Amino acid sequence: SNGLWLGETFSEFNNYPTGIINVNGQYTLGGIQNVGILNNFGLIVYGNNYQSKYGLQNLGTINNKQSGTIKVNNSSQYAITNQQNAEFNNEGSIQIGGISNIGATGIFNRFDAIWNNYATGNIQIDRFTDVGISNGQDATSTFNNSGSISIGNTIGGSYGINNIDKFNNLQ
Asked: What is the enclosing helix (H) or strand (E) of 142?
């Protein structure tokens, strides 16, 4: 089960600048699962109280706009997964492991997925046990960075970045 399931391929969910989404239950799979299009201009928080395997699982498109903030804590395996032809576009702020452990991996970009961290994008990953960012697994995935990425300022794991496919640091 999931805390928030955005489950139709062509569905669109808009969280506007004053919008706040808090998902804090204990779920079998993940706190938030997106299959459609999620546009975030506001605040999305997962895992301040309970733990799930995934904090945020993207199988569609997520656009975290410049005013948007996503915070993920308390995942047991992956804080954020972007997979199976998914696309994650970040122009805002992503804070992973800011208050509690997030399991093995901060961001897992895999199975033909694309991750774009634009010039205004800021990603902070802490409190992981294995990898801050893992890019690629069994297919061609791409991670493009033009913004800021900070990994392991507060407790890091074995690797900051583990790249198997294509990682472009464009700044």
From this structure: strand 142-145
- The answer to whether 93 and 114 are in contact (CB under 8 A) is no
What is the predicted pLDDT for the residue at 29? Answer: 65
pLDDT, tens digit, 9 for 90 and up, residues 95-118: 999 999 999 999 999 999 999 999
Taking the alpha carbons at both ends of the chain, their separation in whole angstroms is 39
Answering whether pTM is above 0.85, one says yes
Q: Name the strands in the sheet holding 2-6, side by side, starting at the edge strand that comes first in the sequence.
A: 2-6, 30-34, 52-58, 75-83, 105-110, 131-135, 159-163
The answer to whether the Cα torsion of 55, 33, 132, 19 is positive or negative is negative
Alpha helix stretches (DSSP H) within the chain: none
Q: What span, in angstroms and rounded, lies between the C-alpha atoms of 107 and 105?
A: 6
Distance CA 88, CA 58 (A): 8
**Rounded distance between C-alpha atoms, residue 114 and residue 143, angstroms:** 6
With beta carbons less than 8 A apart as the criterion, state whether 47 and 19 touch.
no
pLDDT at 25 over 80: no
